[in-house]
């Protein structure tokens, strides 16, 4: 199984490649006052208006200005698409081994890590989209 590696802050995360619809450069986002903090705003994507989500804020990190490395990872979710803003998309990786997240990660991150992937030069938290985006919908 291959994974897309990306960074948010100084953390490396990954998604299974089959969970990613596409990766695009940052697009124009229309902000909405008094919205939920993790929703950066709205944008037109595939002929529909969709909420654009800051993965930084959703994971409890402070938002930051976009850079030339900022990307949007578009993931399919519940019959639609959710654009997730990340700081940088790095590479496609196959991990050598996996471990369950430590209990403190499970509690702190509310189960958003499915597992931790390890390869020769780094490790990454493999995100569980159902938990991550389910928490967004509940809030």
TrEMBL record:
<dbReference type="InterPro" id="IPR002545">
    <property type="entry name" value="CheW-lke_dom"/>
</dbReference>
<dbReference type="Pfam" id="PF01584">
    <property type="entry name" value="CheW"/>
</dbReference>
<dbReference type="InterPro" id="IPR039315">
    <property type="entry name" value="CheW"/>
</dbReference>
<feature type="domain" description="CheW-like">
    <location>
        <begin position="1"/>
        <end position="138"/>
    </location>
</feature>
<protein>
    <submittedName>
        <fullName>Purine-binding chemotaxis protein CheW</fullName>
    </submittedName>
</protein>
<dbReference type="InterPro" id="IPR036061">
    <property type="entry name" value="CheW-like_dom_sf"/>
</dbReference>
């Amino acid at each position: 199984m291959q994974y897309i590696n990306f960074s948010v802050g100084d953390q490396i995360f990954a998604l299974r490649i089959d969970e990613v619809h596409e990766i695009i450069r940052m697009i124009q986002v229309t902000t909405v006052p008094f919205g939920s903090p993790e929703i950066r705003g709205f944008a037109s994507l595939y002929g529909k208006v969709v909420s654009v989500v800051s993965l930084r804020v959703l994971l409890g990190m402070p938002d930051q200005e976009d850079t030339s490395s900022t990307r949007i990872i578009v993931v399919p979710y519940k019959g639609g698409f959710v654009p997730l803003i990340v700081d940088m998309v790095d590479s496609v990786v196959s991990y050598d081994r996996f471990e369950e997240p430590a209990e403190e990660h499970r509690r702190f991150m509310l189960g958003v890590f499915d597992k931790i992937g390890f390869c020769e030069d780094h490790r990454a938290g493999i995100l569980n989209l159902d938990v991550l985006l389910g928490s967004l919908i509940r809030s």
